[in-house]
Design a protein that fits this description.
33% helix, 31% strand, alpha+beta, globular, single chain
Length: 264
């Protein structure tokens, strides 16, 4: 691992893990190294390190019991990273009924690498939801595109609107439109008390890919973050998004795999 990657990974581990990941949760509890959040869309369990845990299987069992018996969530995610120990954590989670979702790459880099001028196709404009438009309508249409592209989604428009409003401006939705049609969308989430902002939920309509629209949407979000004093951008991304972010100068520092427990 090069010094630059090691430095970015350390900043990611120090600033973006555990407490920072439950900002905006409806509630959260702690159990040893774990923090367990409850959001409108379900539960979320994370940690900075599992070093020192004597009985990891028992900790997993307690976490399942917590969500099953003390909350009403239908499902929760246990977020893992590829550089963490123990290496068999995923196998332990699967053995207790979790399902692994697709592996994603964690990209990190200086915000200025993403701030660039991108030529858009004629008629396409990019803006923040609620700016020169109705906030509720903008978020609803963006959320519809996200759920359609992702094949269904955890968050309804109402839940997304509530999450954005409760963030007090730290989380914003951005959209690219051609006329009245939303053709690309994504959130920007500035993480209070850190040097970071995250790029989340980025999607582009299949028929409009390869036209620079997502790259322009990313640049607009990065410019907004830079104006707010953000130093680093982070994204958990698919292979398609990874290529775009790599071309803009972000670096792959680790991987992440969500493991999902579902109530039966």
């Amino acid at each position: 691992m090069t010094d630059d990657i090691a430095r970015l990974l350390q900043a990611y581990d120090d600033q973006l893990r555990r407490d920072a990941e439950v900002v905006g949760a409806l509630s959260f509890t702690e159990d040893g190294p774990l923090v367990r959040g409850v959001f409108g869309w379900g539960g979320f369990t994370t940690y900075r390190s599992l070093d020192g845990v004597d009985d990891l299987d028992e900790l997993i069992e307690r976490t399942i019991a917590h969500y099953r018996d003390e909350t009403e969530v239908a499902r929760f995610e246990w977020k893992t990273r590829g550089h963490d120990q123990p290496a068999d954590l995923g196998q332990r989670l699967v053995a207790q009924g979790f399902q692994a979702e697709e592996l994603e790459t964690v990209m990190v880099g200086p915000v200025e690498h993403l701030v660039q001028d991108v030529e858009l196709p004629p008629g396409v404009r990019i803006r923040q939801a609620g700016v020169a438009g109705d906030f509720t309508d903008d978020v609803t249409r963006a959320n519809h595109l996200q759920n359609a592209v992702f094949g269904g989604g955890d968050a309804t428009a109402v839940e997304t609107i509530d999450r954005l409003e409760r963030s007090r401006g730290n989380a914003t939705m951005w959209l690219a439109e051609d006329g009245d049609e939303v053709i690309s969308a994504g959130r920007l989430e500035i993480v209070p008390g850190t040097d970071f902002a995250g790029l989340w939920g980025g999607v582009t309509h299949a028929a409009r890919r390869g036209q620079g629209i997502y790259r322009a949407l990313t640049a607009a979000r990065a410019a907004h973050a830079q104006q707010a004093g953000v130093k680093f951008m982070q994204s958990d991304c698919s292979p398609m998004s990874q290529l775009i972010l790599e071309r803009s100068g972000l670096t792959a520092v680790t991987t992440t795999t969500p493991y999902i427990w579902t109530r039966v």
